[in-house]
Amino acid sequence: MKLGKVIGRVVSTHKMECLNGLKLLLVQPIDEKGGAAGSPLVAFDAAKAGEGDLVMFEAGKEAAQANPNGWFNPADAAILGVVDAVNRAGGE
Amino acid sequence: MILAKVVASVVSTEKDPHYVGKKILAVQPIDPSGSPRGRTILAVDGVQAGIGDLVLVVDEGGSARTVIGDEGALTVRTAICGIVDRVDMEEDA
After folding, report:
1. Could you tell me the mean pLDDT of each successive run of 10 residues in chain B, 93 residues long?
2. Is the pLDDT of residue A70 over 60?
3. Which CATH number applies to A2-14+21-82?
4. If you measure CA to CA, which chain B residue comes closest to A56?
């Protein structure tokens, strides 16, 4: 998984049936210090995340497994958790 | 497997059920000489690692699920499978 920040929401009406009912969010990958790390991507939400939340997301085939509509789906990124805290050495 | 250093622990309450009860750590991949290489990734801890430890990380789902002993955890892809005591290299390597 990677850390990310939800920076927006993506609305799509015409899409594959197996993506129906999923919330699509725009995620900016970040490092553990909060700095941007790479380009934003679209991930579906499996953890009740919302805009502005710090999240952890999985990219790759494991993401599709979190889709409640079955395992055969084209999702390649999924938000799997809302992050409460990141504890670094030195208590930052 | 890749060499990495544990840089932070991550706390999450609302998460995918496959991650419940598992310790999640942020690891920074490093090269054998210790310099950071690429982005930090989050890994499930299978060996009681802690912040500052040099560790071995598998970034492949099947291996990661074996490490954490939960073959049903289909959303897990990355896991820490060892704590590195020492890396020996040839001087000119």
Report:
1. 96 95 96 91 96 96 94 94 91 65
2. yes
3. 2.40.50.220
4. B42
List B4's β-bridge partners, or say none: B29, B55
Indicate whether B88 belongs to any domain.
Answer: no
Count CB pairs under 8 A between chains A and B: 94
Q: What are phi and psi of B63, to 5 degrees?
A: -65, -45
The residue segments making up the domain with residue B36 are: 2-83
Determine the 3-state secondary structure of B6 from DSSP.
strand
Q: Are B89 and B38 in contact (CB under 8 A)?
A: no
How close, in Å, is residue A60 to chain B by CA atoms?
Answer: 9
Inform me whether the C-beta atom of residue B14 falls under 8 Å from chain A C-beta atoms.
Answer: yes
Distance from CA of A56 to the nearest CA of B (A): 8
- What ipTM, to 2 d.p.? 0.81
Q: Is B52 helix (H, G, I), strand (E, B) or coil?
A: coil
Minimum distance, in Å, between the CA of residue B79 and any CA atom of chain A: 10
- How open is the CA angle B23-B45-B53, to the nearest 5 degrees? 110
Residue A42 CB neighbour total at 10 angstroms: 15
SS3 A45: strand
